[in-house]
Amino acid sequence: MDRNTQQSSGSALYPPIDPFDQRMLDVGDGHKVYVEQCGNPHGLPVVVVHGGPGGGCSPMMRRFFDPAIWRVILFDQRGCGRSRPYASVRDNTTWHLVADMEHIRETLGIDRWAVFGGSWGATLSLIYAVTHPDRAAHLFLRGVFLMEQRELDWFYGGGAGQFWPEQWDRFCALVPQQERDDLIAAYHRRLFDSPVHEQTRFARAWAAWENALASVRSQGQTGEPNGEYARAFSRLENHYFINHGFLEQDGWIRANLDRIRHIPTVIVQGRYDMICPPRSAQLLAHGMGSSAVLHMVPFAGHALSEPGIASQLVKSVDRVATAQDGLLRFE
Question: If I label 311, which of 5, 175, 202, 263 is the partner at 20 to 30 A Cα–Cα?
Fold first, then answer.
């Protein structure tokens, strides 16, 4: 389907495609990570980094890239999606995930690749780039989360709850009043130190709080999250947050931006993102200087599926592909 036909159909995304390669990659520590490739096997390589922590890749994530131009690599992070062991937090830290990305790159014989990630995926993309600045040819970031305490305080300390009081009250209600000064810690005790049925009950509440705020069009009604998925997602996310992303200092990403200021970066941010407010995107753009372009989408929230977000991401990816002048490689 050509671009004009596709856009006239009302969707900014490219048509659905299937992978040409799927594998389980042994990354050590008892973990096997699901990896897939789709698009052009000889095209511009791009790795897609999903959110969470605790989410997983999805077929929709393939559709932000022209399959004739891009070699698209998706993977499920440790403990997520089709990776095994499922929901495991053992040997599961930010630094394990960075090492896994390098393992994937080397296994696939890629020298440099673009990195595409949103929310926690943007966090991990930035940490990967800081750690391996010679391997990230371009960054596409959406719904920026810098893994800073002020961001956790906003979402789990009552800031977002000022806008969504009904959902916030439901999230807090499961925890005794005397523990509500630190909801991440309170949920951690119940997600990890209680029977499985109790873990699932708290996991559903944790996931429902986040899901309710994902879209600017949301009315806060998300339905009941699947118990198995909610337990994996919530335990992994809480595991990362209670450990502050396993970073050695608050503000680690911004403190290390000098290592990646040479990398062309596109930032796409929803103006009304309640999960990752625009301040972080602005701070990142300022810190990156002239290498970064920030697109603030006027009527959009956090979700990758928001029409304005999806449209701007596709335009940005297409622009980079055009700039490569059909060479199908990163110089």
Answer: 263
Calpha distance 218→302 (Å, rounded): 11
Q: Which residues contact 11 (CB under 8 A, 6 or more apart)?
A: none
> Cα separation of 143 and 280, whole Å?
9
Give, in words, the CATH class of 3-147+247-323: alpha beta
List active site positions.
119, 273, 302
Four-point Cα dihedral 201, 202, 207, 212, nearest 10: 90
- At position 9, the amino acid (one-letter code) is S
> Quick check: 98 and 130 in contact, CB under 8 A?
no
Using the CB atoms, write b or e for 70-88: b if 16+ within 10 Å: bbbbbbbbbbbbbbbeebb
- Cα–Cα distance measured from residue 230 to residue 220, given in angstroms and rounded to the nearest whole number: 17
Q: Closest by alpha carbon to 189, among 73, 197, 198?
A: 198
Proportion of the chain above pLDDT 70, given as a percent: 93
The residues of the chain scoring below 50 in pLDDT are: 1-10, 326-327
Distance CA 298, CA 308 (A): 8
At 201, the amino acid letter reads R
Q: Are 83 and 41 in contact (CB under 8 A)?
A: no
What rounded mean pLDDT belongs to the chain?
94
Q: Which residues contact 221 (CB under 8 A, 6 or more apart)?
A: 212
Residue partners of 175: CB distance under 8 A and separation at least 6: 183, 186, 187
CA 147 to chain centre: 12
Give the pTM. Answer: 0.95
- Start and end residues for every CATH 3.40.50.1820 domain found in the chain: 3-147+247-323
Q: What letter represents residue 91's amino acid?
A: D
Tell me the DSSP string of 26-42.
Answer: EEETTEEEEEEEEE-TT
What's the token pair of residue 178? 């005397």
